[in-house]
Inverse folding.
């Protein structure tokens, strides 16, 4: 709408070229993708650019029941796809066999039409599934829905539905389980992302090898706070979808996801803004849960705690990997910074301080300027109300380089160090480094980590004229 | 320290010249200043620039006892002047006769030396006062201390002490009560401020005319959360000092200030960062509390509630005026935006949402880009946990121009309006406007206001190389 007129600094701004972030997207061996899934990404025309993938479809083809878990935004203005997916997941008691996603339009603040459109996307995707072996009532859907993009506009729904329908037609069908299919699906999630975000890993439980793969997208409005269904709503657009061929009960799948999301997607910040559409979905289809030709029972926390803990740990590590990709591709980001807070009275205290430092505009502009301005880190730390008082004379701050060289303490027990500025510059000029804040509560105290990026001219440029 | 290298966008950035903000600083008639005060600002050499005023002194010369009240940062890393001032005010049970301030160095995170230096500033200023008629024990001080500037560096204390001492020497003394003296004091508060912030007003209580004048400074690290002494610590640098010639008891003065600060300085945000030094001081010396030649008793909430309410209202309006000046001069700011939230379940809910909108990086970059992006306003609104659930279908958002022309509704009862984009551009291109969010709780529900500015390239520039 409005013409963005940029202000005076052209004459004073010299430039530093930002290297492409695309190297964070690497091909993954086909053998790493979980069995029993078909995926694709197609161009429906939600995005204006010719050929840009904007609708993704993910189907579970396993003959076993597929468990599903989700974490949704806690924003009070939940988008239609969030409302519909939460409803479907509830009605199906943690089962679902498909996911459909569109980028380019968030289907948020779109009233009754928006709900109808999200429901139509789910139903159209159901038609791609093999005849129902799920035992679900025909009144509901087996598809979870995600949308991301501009708020307050209706979806071009007929374009989206015919794109989904194209996958029923042999000549146009692009569904597959190779790298190309997974990458197409990942690309269909992208908005202001500069590269598709796709990862995969293998893991073992009780001697059986399973696989897990997933994709996510982010870039802006990234400061998620997601809870399990029915915990209530949020708004920022982070979308992610993870698939595994392990068999795990719906209840345990949800518990593992809730734990993992708190330590991964709920511990990243690009700009401190929470979206109406944030959604992380997790499917477990049991396609590989077989040993010596015998189908294994679903893993459940109650009956096999050890197996559950292995799964939870693998999932947490995997979600952290995916979450970090979002920060690396943060709008205008030139730095990837880990904020670690240790020695805190509780995990929540540590997490709250890490979040505050990670969202401080002054800290983030200092990171952009490569300035070891620990005063701003300290001010942010001190501004957080805690469960018990902070002892200023026990707090230490250290800048830790990512290249394995010696860390640089800047504050020890509340006393500023004489800082070697050349060394500080060296560390701050790295693309990756860590800010370590020790509140001095000792090794038995709690710790939390957050991942953030810097605040640049480019961030202001991207968000000053997003709608234009 | 680090050399700030700016990034690629020079070629894409066209410029818009930012008009000087200095017109917000206007001369004030001498008759508007309260009686019984002497002020000055001098160059001590804390600031490098030759002649830049960096030490301010304010003395009460009234023969009546001077009441003093304060609100200090709640940051856990309280700067030395905050610790000392809080202690002195406590020991004196709400009495003080002088204020000393320095800019250029915050005396924060400076350990035992910092405490000693703040104490020395107070003692040196005591020596400028007429022989003690305060009845205070000689072990404490009658001076409150404020500092602002870089964190983690010791004050050049001997330069500061000799600057204060110069005011005892007839030839160099510049203390006065004219516009020039008040302006010099206001200039001594400035750091990245582009103009001194000085205001004055007259008011009547029970037929007696009183005056109130004050100054403040801000620019960056502005998101105060200040409480009365002993409520605990914060960190951002907002400093302000208000003087009146009314007579009011220390207890009632503190209550009025706490109320006023919540609705003024604690309702502004430049960058969402809270400082270690935030301090607002208020002196009431009773120099004008005389009617028909008879000295009036101190106003007290217990004995004259009506007079107290008048004073509280005048003070609140005055602190809002001063607080707005800080936002107008926010680092890199090109817009002055009022955020009003009404129809909320409680004042705290309304205040929390207004604060969240005012600090949203996405909202603030959209303001800079003059984009009526109500989706971001809504996302910020929905991300705040409230005392009772928000009804998305009752929420309305309106852009209100400051020129008295017709407001533009963009969302009514949760439904997006067909927005006239030309009209939206017209409003958003104004320097001043209001974002009005109505949660739909009706006219009896609670409301709160916040004042904020936009987020510009200039903000990133200023804070990317502040220390360099």
């Amino acid at each position: 709408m409005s013409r963005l007129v940029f202000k005076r600094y052209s004459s004073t701004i010299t430039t530093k070229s930002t290297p492409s972030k695309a190297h964070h997207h690497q091909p993954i061996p086909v053998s790493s993708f979980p069995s029993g899934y078909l995926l694709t990404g197609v161009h429906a025309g939600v995005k204006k650019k010719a050929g840009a993938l904007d609708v993704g479809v993910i189907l579970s083809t396993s003959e076993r029941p597929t468990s599903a878990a989700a974490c949704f935004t806690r924003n009070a203005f939940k988008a239609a796809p969030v409302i519909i997916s939460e409803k479907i997941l509830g009605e199906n008691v943690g089962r679902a066999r498909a996911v459909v996603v569109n980028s380019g339009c968030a289907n948020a603040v779109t009233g009754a039409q928006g709900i109808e459109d999200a429901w139509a996307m789910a139903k159209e995707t159901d038609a791609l599934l093999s005849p129902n072996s799920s035992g679900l009532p025909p009144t509901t859907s087996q598809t979870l829905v995600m949308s991301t993009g501009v708020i307050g506009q209706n979806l071009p729904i007929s374009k989206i539905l015919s794109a989904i329908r194209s996958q029923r037609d042999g000549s146009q069908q692009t569904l597959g389980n190779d790298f190309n299919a997974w990458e197409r699906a990942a690309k269909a999630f992208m908005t202001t992302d500069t590269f598709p975000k796709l990862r995969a890993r293998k893991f073992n439980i009780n001697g059986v090898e399973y696989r897990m793969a997933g994709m996510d997208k982010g870039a802006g409005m990234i400061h998620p706070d997601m809870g399990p269904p029915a915990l209530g709503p949020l708004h920022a657009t982070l979308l992610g979808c993870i698939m595994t061929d392990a068999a795990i009960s719906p209840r345990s799948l949800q518990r593992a996801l809730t734990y993992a999301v708190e330590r991964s997607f709920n511990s990243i910040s690009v700009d401190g803004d929470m979206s109406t559409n944030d959604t992380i979905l997790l499917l477990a289809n049991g396609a590989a849960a077989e040993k010596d030709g015998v189908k294994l029972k679903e893993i459940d926390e109650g009956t096999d705690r050890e197996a559950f803990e292995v799964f939870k740990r693998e999932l947490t590590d995997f979600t952290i990997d995916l979450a970090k990709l979002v920060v690396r591709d943060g709008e205008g980001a030139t730095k990837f910074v880990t904020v670690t807070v240790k020695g805190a009275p509780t995990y929540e205290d540590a997490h709250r301080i890490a979040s505050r430092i990670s969202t401080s505009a002054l800290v983030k502009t200092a990171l952009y300027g490569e300035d070891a301005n620990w005063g701003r880190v300290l001010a942010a730390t001190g501004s957080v109300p805690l469960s018990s008082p902070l002892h200023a004379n026990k707090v230490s701050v250290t800048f830790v380089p990512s290249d394995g060289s010696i860390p640089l303490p800047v504050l020890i027990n509340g006393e500023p160090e004489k800082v070697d500025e050349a060394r500080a510059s060296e560390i701050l000029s790295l693309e990756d480094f860590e800010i370590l804040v020790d509140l001095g509560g000792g090794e038995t105290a709690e710790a939390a980590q957050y991942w953030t990026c810097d605040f640049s001219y480019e961030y202001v440029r991207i968000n000053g004229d997003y709608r234009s």
